[in-house]
Write a structure and sequence with these properties.
Layout: H1 2-25, E1 45-48, H2 53-58, E2 64-70, E3 74-78, E4 88-93, E5 106-112, E6 118-126, E7 132-144, E8 159-164, E9 177-178, E10 189-196, E11 201-208, E12 223-237, E13 283-287, H3 294-301, H4 305-311, E14 325-330, H5 345-352, E15 364-366, H6 368-378, E16 387-395, E17 414-418, E18 423-428, E19 436-441, E20 444-450, E21 456-458, E22 463-468, E23 473-482, H7 484-491, H8 512-544
Parallel strand pairs: 16-23
Antiparallel strand pairs: 1-2, 3-6, 4-5, 5-12, 6-11, 7-10, 7-12, 8-9, 8-11, 13-14, 15-18, 16-19, 17-18, 17-20, 20-22, 21-23
Helix pairs in contact: 1-8, 3-4
Length: 545
């Protein structure tokens, strides 16, 4: 009788243990849990040990004493414009005037005097494999000529945040998913972005690239300060498999593990007077080739990345695929009457540029104004004073960010040179005749962008803004390497479920780990129930005996 009294309690205990074991075996998704180390930027700040050659050059003593960052965080910076410097990093204190700290006693701060910077903070975090994560943080800027005013005088801070789903440390990686830019002056505003991890690590980035003082374009504001506080990285969904990595900052992707290079063909000048034939609606399309990035399509069309994105109502994180048609210009629709075709001087000149094999001798195109300058320079007018920009793309084998001896030129890189108003030239490298020098330009500011393939990682900035005076010249070297890890990811089978979106992936069902946990839990429960049944039988036999 006593055994019968305790039998229900024994059975309930065994069932409870089984349920607990089953629950604990389910994969932890850490939803709602902040995965960042020191997300509020409190505590002790310490100097940064430089990791890249450029950082080591700026910190020749082996430690960056002016880059004081909170535990768990690292700084990054690049110097592209003549006004750019490596900013000073230090904690913002609550007892200092202004809303410099949102919560707690400290916030992250970096700043520059009478100059500009392109810089931020980063942290690499371990996350559940292939999970969808969300990075949020509060930030603001103070750009002022006054030492005491708490109100900014103007300018553009260009603040945003990003997630590298591969866990890399390069702030110029094309893998990074960026938020929209926000101009957050004088008081904290929230920033947020989501991405799916491609493995079990991601890196979060803050980013700011403040403009120069519009009243003194050769200088920054006296005070250009950036503040960040109260960060969080949380899991918002489980992922079945990592998505294909983006091909460029425009988000292009390919599932081909070894895409052929972009054809080294001359860029076609469309611009405001398209030369390609419009369709019945007056739209000019360009087809995406295998291995193309949106930049490469824009470069061949003679337009900027922003222009092609606007024409196609796309964002920088959009995806393109081989065979897609992108709008690259507009023109008059073909009429019913076809006028007699005339041979233009440009066509004659184009034929003259063909060599014996029929290939183009010159791989660059430019606007008529620049073409006139280039022609004048080739006619021996040595007294002409102008600006020259020389471009080189190279295979940065040691990933140093420097074009070292023995490293080879990289072919099939499409460059676009933009003067702020229009594309002045395009060029596609052949890997043998570079550097390519565009001479006879007028003095002023230019933006140079380059294309990038799906499995290519940049070691130098791919988008550079320069300002040149009359008679000056500038040599720009663009380094990159083939990312074997990314290449391996693109070759894995079943990366994206059939019919799934190309963007951030979430799983409505259970992934493989969850299914395994369910099976294990079921087996354990069955075993415990079997033990309970055996116990009942034994107790019954003893009672009978």
């Amino acid at each position: 009788m006593r055994a019968n009294r305790y039998l229900p309690i024994l059975l309930l205990g065994l069932l409870a243990l089984g349920i607990i074991f089953f629950i604990t075996r389910l994969p932890a998704q850490a939803q709602g849990q902040n995965l960042l180390t020191n997300p509020s930027f409190e505590g002790q700040y310490s100097g940064y040990v430089p990791e890249t050659p450029a950082e080591q050059a700026d910190c020749s003593l082996g430690i960056c004493s002016t880059a004081q960052t909170a535990s768990g965080w690292k700084p990054w910076w690049v110097k592209e414009r003549p006004t750019d410097v490596n900013p000073e990093f230090k904690p913002a204190q609550r007892n200092v005037g202004g809303s410099r700290v949102r919560t707690g006693d400290r916030a992250a701060q970096y700043f520059s005097f009478w100059s500009t910077h392109k810089a931020g903070l980063r942290q690499t975090v371990t996350v559940p494999a292939n999970s969808v994560v969300q990075f949020t943080i509060w930030g603001h800027t103070w750009m002022s000529e006054s030492d005491t005013s708490l109100t900014s005088d103007g300018g553009t801070p260009n603040m945003r945040i990003g997630i590298d789903p591969t866990g890399g440390s390069n702030a110029y990686s094309q893998q990074i998913v960026w938020s929209e830019y926000k101009q957050a002056f004088d008081s904290y505003q929230p920033f947020s972005v989501q991405a799916q991890a491609q493995g079990d690590k991601v890196t979060v980035f803050t980013f700011a690239a403040p403009s120069t003082n519009p009243n003194s374009p050769d200088y920054g504001f006296k005070h250009t300060d950036i503040y960040w506080d109260d960060a969080a990285l949380v899991v918002v969904g489980a992922g079945a498999a990592p998505p294909p990595p983006p091909a460029d900052s425009g988000g292009g992707a390919t599932t081909n593990p070894n895409p052929p290079p972009v054809a080294a063909a001359p860029a076609t000048q469309f611009g405001g007077n398209p030369t390609a034939t419009p369709d019945a609606e007056g739209i000019i399309y360009a087809e995406v080739r295998s291995g193309d990035s949106i930049w490469a399509v824009a470069a061949r069309a003679g337009i900027t990345l922003d222009e092609i994105l606007e024409m196609n109502d796309m964002s920088r994180d959009a995806f393109v695929h081989t065979g897609d048609l992108l709008v690259v210009g507009y023109g008059d629709p073909p009429g019913e009457e076809i006028a007699e075709e005339e041979v233009s001087p440009e066509a004659t000149e184009s034929e003259a540029n063909l060599d014996e094999t029929g290939d183009e001798k010159i791989q660059a195109t430019s606007t008529p104004e620049v073409a006139d300058s280039l022609q004048a320079s080739t006619e021996g007018e040595d007294d002409m004073v102008g600006v020259a920009i020389c471009l080189t793309a190279y295979d940065d084998v040691n990933q140093s960010g420097v074009f070292d001896s023995g490293e080879e030129l990289r072919p099939d890189v499409a460059f676009t040179i933009f003067d702020g108003q229009q594309v002045v030239s395009n060029y596609v490298t052949d890997g043998s005749s570079e550097p390519f020098c565009l001479e006879g330009l007028v003095a002023g500011s230019y933006q140079i962008t380059r294309s990038i393939l799906a499995n290519e990682a940049l070691t130098t900035p791919g988008d550079r803004a320069v300002s040149l005076t009359e008679g000056s010249s500038l040599e720009l070297e663009f380094g990159s390497f083939l990312d074997e890890e990314t290449l391996a990811l693109t070759s894995e089978e079943g990366q994206v479920a059939e019919g799934a979106d190309s963007g951030v992936q979430t799983s409505d069902g259970m992934d493989e780990d969850a299914l395994t946990a369910v099976v294990v839990g079921a087996v354990v429960l069955a075993f415990l129930l079997l033990v309970a049944v055996i116990a009942v039988i034994i107790v019954g036999r003893r009672k009978t005996a």
